[in-house]
Every structure is written in structure tokens, then in C-alpha cells.
Specification:
By secondary structure, this protein is mainly alpha-helical. It is globular, with a radius of gyration of 17 Å. It contains eleven helices and no strands. It has one domain (42-255). The N and C termini lie far apart (38 Å).
């Protein structure tokens, strides 16, 4: 297994894989470019199971329960790292402290009030939105688009020119590792794939494209905020970016015509 794939799977999931033999710049670049694929594969499994079960549950509360279980499953297979990053980033940004002090807050093991609120609200949005997709029979494709685009937002955060906030940690390893041209090609390919999948399954390709682009805009806002307030990205910022982008994609998918 290539080192880049090992790094991507080992960083973004709890799937046991051997550690990469080296984490050179090319390995970090490859891992971040593979992030959407890793996310999409997880979503195919979880979303596919939900799609199979959806027709056998009560339409009253069944979609909501399945959505909650699916989001919980995604948190489990990612070791909750993205949600932890969301909480730490919210605490750091919400503190209003200078960058160095805010980064120290993010490094603490406890979760403050901003982190708790961020996790609760984002999970509520994700579950409620995904429940609508489950009820509409779009459980599999909807989760794949949202989760894959959420991981594509991680790739965006690692584009060359975006600095690391610290000299150590995951952020320092992957910051600036992705050439802008490579990200553009990947983003166009992913968006086109989402549109094609929607069209082939009887969905609305315009909605799929809107969800992907909207999620990337949200991801870009998170990254820009982190650079302005913290001086760059960290592993926690990557987690916050993917969770918020995933939530945005789910909201767009359920609000626009499917």
C-alpha cells in the first residue's frame, strides 16, 4: 500500500493500516489529495446500509433514527477526531484571545462552552438534514456527496499558500502540500462525479453541484478565519473544516430539489 494512502487512511479513519515509512512532502500531498476518496468510501458503506434499511422502518421516526445512527457511525469510524477538532477550534476562536493563547486553548484536553455548543449544533444540523435525505430515498448518494466534499475541504485547507499555525502537529505536516492546480483538477473532477452520480440515480445534478460548491465555500471561510485569527491551520482546524463543510452540503442537498 502506498505511503500516501496509508497516511490518508490512518489519519482520517480508525481503519488499522501500517504507518507510512516516511511522511515526506510528496506523501503528505498524496494523502490530502486522497482525502475525498477515503471519505467517499466510508460514506458508500454507511450510506448504503442506511439506504437498504430505510424502506423497512416507520416513516414517522425511522429516517431520523437512521440518520442519527449513520452520523454516529461516521464519528466512530473517524475516532471522533473531526468533531474534537471542531470543538477545539470553536473554543480557540471563541476565546477572543491572541493567536498564541488561542492555540494553547485548542491544545487543552478539556472542551469549553464554545466547543460544546459547536458540536451539539453541528450534529443536530447534520442529523436533521440527513434524515430528510433518508426520507426522500437519497441516503446513499447524499452521504457520499456530503462526506466526500467535507474531505475535499481538507484538501482545500492544505493548498499551497495556506500556512501552518504551529511548527509541529498534523497541520505543520500537511500545510501547503497541495499545489493549487492539483486542487482545482480534483475539485472539478469531484463536482462532475457528484453531478453524474445524481443524474444516473434519478436525482438533480444541479443540486449536487450546488452542495459541493457551497460546502467548499464554507470550508474556505473556515480556513480564512483560522489564518486570520490563528495564523494558519492546525489539525483541529482541518477537523472543523470538514465537519462544517459536510453539514453545509447536507443542508443544501435537503433544501434544494433532489
Amino acid at each position: 500500500m502506498p505511503d500516501a494512502l496509508r497516511l490518508a487512511i490512518g489519519t482520517l479513519t480508525r481503519v488499522p493500516v501500517p504507518a507510512p515509512s516516511t511522511v515526506a512532502a510528496r506523501v503528505a500531498r498524496g494523502a490530502m489529495l486522497l482525502a475525498p476518496l477515503v471519505g467517499a468510501l466510508l460514506a458508500i458503506v454507511v450510506g448504503g446500509i442506511v439506504q437498504l434499511l430505510a424502506s423497512h422502518v416507520s416513516p414517522a421516526f425511522g429516517p431520523l433514527i437512521l440518520a442519527a445512527l449513520a452520523i454516529a457511525a461516521m464519528a466512530y469510524v473517524t475516532r471522533g477526531l473531526h468533531l474534537d477538532g471542531l470543538a477545539d477550534t470553536a473554543d480557540a476562536l471563541g476565546s477572543g484571545r491572541p493567536a498564541e493563547q488561542a492555540l494553547d486553548i485548542a491544545r487543552r484536553s478539556d472542551i469549553g462552552p464554545f466547543g460544546v455548543v459547536a458540536i451539539v449544533l453541528v450534529l443536530l444540523v447534520q442529523v436533521a438534514s440527513y434524515a430528510g435525505l433518508v426520507g426522500a430515498g437519497r441516503a446513499a448518494l447524499g452521504l457520499v456527496i456530503a462526506v466526500g466534499t467535507g474531505r475535499l475541504a481538507i484538501t482545500l485547507a492544505c493548498v499551497r499558500g495556506v500556512p501552518a499555525a504551529r511548527a509541529d502537529g498534523l497541520g505543520a505536516t500537511v500545510a501547503g502540500s497541495v499545489p493549487p492546480a492539483a486542487f482545482v483538477i480534483l475539485a472539478v473532477t469531484w463536482t462532475a462525479a457528484c453531478a453524474a452520480a445524481a443524474s444516473l440515480t434519478g436525482g438533480n445534478p444541479v443540486t449536487a453541484v450546488a452542495a459541493a460548491l457551497g460546502a467548499l465555500v464554507v470550508g474556505a471561510v473556515v480556513v480564512r478565519t483560522a489564518v486570520r485569527r490563528l495564523g494558519g491551520i492546525t489539525g483541529d482546524v482541518l477537523g472543523a473544516t470538514t465537519e462544517l463543510a459536510t453539514a453545509a452540503a447536507l443542508v443544501i442537498l435537503v433544501l434544494l430539489p433532489t
